[in-house]
Amino acid sequence: MTVYGGQGDPARTMALLWRAHSPAAEAAGSKRRTAPGPKQGLTVDAIVEAAIALADADGMEKLSMRAVGERLGTSAMALYTYVPSKRELVDLMYDQAHAGLPHSYDLAAGRDAAVHAWTGDLWTRYLTHPWLLQVSFARPVLGPHEQSVLESLLGILHGTGVSAPAVRPTVSALFHLIRGAAQTAAESRAAAAATGTSDEQWWTERSTQLAALVPDFATRFPHSAALSTAPPPADTPSTYDPVAHTRHTLDAAVNLLLTALTKGRAPS
Fold first, then answer.
1. Which of 17, 57, 96, 157 could form a disulfide with 162 if both were Cys (CB 3.0 to 4.6 A apart)?
2. Are 87 and 139 in contact (CB under 8 A)?
3. DSSP characters over 232-245
4. To the nearest whole number, what is the mean pLDDT of the chain?
5. Exposure of 187 by Cβ count < 10 A (0-12 exposed, 13-18 middle, 19+ buried)?
6. Calpha distance 221→214 (Å, rounded)
7. Domain spans of the chain?
8. Measuring CA to CA, how many Å separate 123 from each of 30, 154, 204, 212, 248?
9. What are phi and psi of 2, to 5 degrees?
10. Which of 155, 108, 142 is CA-nearest to residue 22?
11. What local confidence, expressed as pLDDT, does residue 36 receive?
């Protein structure tokens, strides 16, 4: 299920996103809060927190204003005074789920260590809130917390002398690597429960069938066969854990990108 952000009313959405970070938005929010309507016990923050908890538990498929209202012990209608619709709520959830990540990283150990720390923090956040990966990356929500994640990475790159032409493709590559890896890890976690079959069982059963049905597989697909039989890198996790293996692959991919950046091969 793919959810697209940025579908709500632009003026209201942006004012809500920046309500605690913009004097103009805060003033507009104060005026709205003086309007008649249900107020006791409800705030935008409480609604967003409840919606995030709901998405953490059940995914975006079960998200609705009614479900959020029920979680708060009230009705969907009571929420509309604060958040106009589910469309604005999705943007608020997405941005808030990025709150609390570091605004800057220590560069004393060098660029690569800082980039890996930033990568690890964003990876962990995606796996903590896997529904974030259901919100399309095609259109950012343009909220303060999402922007802070980007700003912290730019601070690392600019602070360690990465050339201006290389910054944009490096940023894009890192975000796509992390989101793609986290998506695979999140799906791996969910696959066993959704299908009733563990990853190990799935691979064992199908590889056995493949070997019986295609005995000349290695001849027909020599490069694939060579990859499957090649010894893993020395630091590969010894036990089978699809999430750990995906993280290991992500770290290796980030290393390749950083090595290329050092050698001046990043696209410009």
1. 157
2. no
3. PPTTS-SS--HHHH
4. 90
5. middle
6. 11
7. 10-96, 98-194+237-268
8. 36, 17, 29, 39, 12
9. -105, 130
10. 142
11. 54
Distance of CA 137 to the CA centre of its chain: 9
Q: How many whole angstroms separate alpha carbon 28 and alpha carbon 22?
A: 10
Q: What is the pTM of this model?
A: 0.88
Q: What residue type is assigned to position 95 of the chain?
A: D
Confidence (pLDDT) at 268: 46
Domain spanning 10-96 has what CATH number?
A: 1.10.10.60
For residue range 107-166, list pLDDT tens digits in order: 999 999 999 999 999 999 999 999 999 999 999 999 999 999 999 999 999 999 999 999
- List the alpha helices (DSSP H) in the chain: 10-17, 23-33, 44-58, 65-71, 76-79, 86-96, 111-128, 144-159, 164-195, 199-213, 217-220, 222-229, 242-262
What is 98-194+237-268's CATH topology? Tetracycline Repressor; domain 2 (1.10.357)
Q: Which long-range contacts (CB under 8 A, 24 or more apart) does 119-125 make?
A: 119/174, 119/178, 119/250, 119/251, 119/254, 122/149, 122/178, 123/178, 123/181, 123/182, 123/247, 123/250, 125/97, 125/98, 125/101
Sequence-ordered list of residues with C-beta below 8 angstroms from that of 17, at least 6 positions apart, any chain = 25, 91, 92, 95, 141, 142, 143, 144
CA angle 180, 119, 173 (to 5 degrees): 50
Give the pLDDT confidence score for residue 1 in this predicted structure: 83
pLDDT digits (tens, 9 = 90+) for 149-203: 999 999 999 999 999 999 999 999 999 999 999 999 999 989 988 999 988 899 9
> Hey, do 10-96 and 98-194+237-268 end up sharing a CATH topology, with the first three levels equal?
no
